């Protein structure tokens, strides 16, 4: 039964489970006198489980000093999940000893304080400003605490997009690459006659003026900038004549491989202390090779080819390659989309555990595409902006099973912003320190881009 006592200053009184401590002192052999303790301080606050609010019972409260007021505060330092409702909570308090405890809550709008004596259990609205008071079991001391229930105010599963720079260059070329190297972000854009590099030391917030890169005298073909790779502290890139160049600073390049033993057609990825790529022999065969420093190449295996099925021919151009960590913690290689030697666009995901033995995966949800960007993030694989044969841009896709199947993410949490024009061939830089990845440039059927964006999952801030 609920009894209400109305006063000018209204106070909530509530029956609370209490931990009362006693001790006995032997006065003589015949009897002991039980003395009440003079300690009123807080021991614990727990919330009862609620099926409609998962995790409510996991809230852990401790007594802290309010850094702003210096007052005592009961607070959960680890916030409750986003959208948790605490307006009707079964709560249990305990104190070191108690002869009476009560809550004081300020009512909304008026600021008045209501006096309610609760008999038995009832729920508490912790959205209201709340104080708890407790008097020790001997009645000599009283403790008071403000109660603060922290709840995450942002959706932890929301991907937040941020624009960092509108255009690194006003006239970007289709042939381009953004990459992190030597503590800087570098953005390359190249024509048939010249390659220019721009640099940023603040994660793409500002950029230097473009400077022409210095190439060896034997370079007579444009660079394949899209496939540029960092390996063992140097950058590597091929050209359309099958040569390979390397640089220690990203600006001055030297010839690492001159193509005398066969063209180095395209680079794939760095793996196990070696640089991996696609070789083209003098007879027109394509093979997978590896090199420690780009100078001498070891023939690893023929490129997977099924002459009876064009869709099962390994791509040699416009593919997307990624080395990611598998669920058992070992590196795994992936190549998605691209064009095979006959110019056929692929919808295959190729997977490998060693770099030269590959398995094709055909997923009906994945269109034939080229020029996508791949990332491993939050235990998922993300695919950005592949282009189809008609020039359409494939929507943002994700895979939770290491590339075996793909789907469009929940648009309530992960969707491209309207101000981000759809494009393919964008460069993706994963910033492990900031737990964020950056997308630079790209192109669609209408134009090339050189803008800089970043993406971060909200809960990555809280880890």
Major sheet summary line = 8 strands, mixed
Mean pLDDT: 88
Structural class of the helices, strands and pairings?
A: mainly beta
Radius of gyration: 32 Å
**Which spans have pLDDT < 50 for at least 5 consecutive residues?**
1-32, 116-120
| Major β-sheet strand ordering | 1-10-2-9-11-12-7-6
- Helical content band: under 10%
Q: Helical element count?
A: 0
DSSP strand content: 35-45%
The counted number of beta strands is 35
Alpha-carbon distance between the two ends: 46 Å
Shape: elongated
Explain this structure.
- The protein has 463 residues and is mainly β.
- It contains no helices and 35 strands.
- Strands 1-10-2-9-11-12-7-6 form an eight-stranded mixed beta sheet, with no helix packed on it.
- The relative contact order is 0.10.
Q: Helix and strand layout, with pairings?
A:
Layout lengths: L2 E2 L7 E3 L7 E5 L5 E5 L5 E6 L14 E4 L6 E4 L15 E5 L4 E6 L10 E3 L11 E6 L6 E7 L10 E7 L9 E7 L2 E7 L4 E6 L10 E2 L16 E3 L2 E5 L5 E4 L6 E4 L5 E9 L2 E7 L5 E6 L6 E5 L17 E6 L5 E6 L11 E5 L5 E5 L10 E5 L2 E5 L12 E3 L27 E5 L4 E8 L4 E10 L6
Parallel strand pairs: 2-10, 7-12
Antiparallel strand pairs: 1-10, 2-9, 3-4, 5-8, 6-7, 9-11, 11-12, 13-35, 14-15, 15-16, 16-17, 18-19, 19-20, 20-21, 22-23, 23-24, 24-25, 26-27, 27-28, 28-29, 30-31, 31-32, 33-34, 34-35
Give keywords:
463 residues; mainly beta; eight-stranded mixed β-sheet; disordered N terminus
Describe the structure concisely for a colleague.
It is built from no helices and 35 strands.
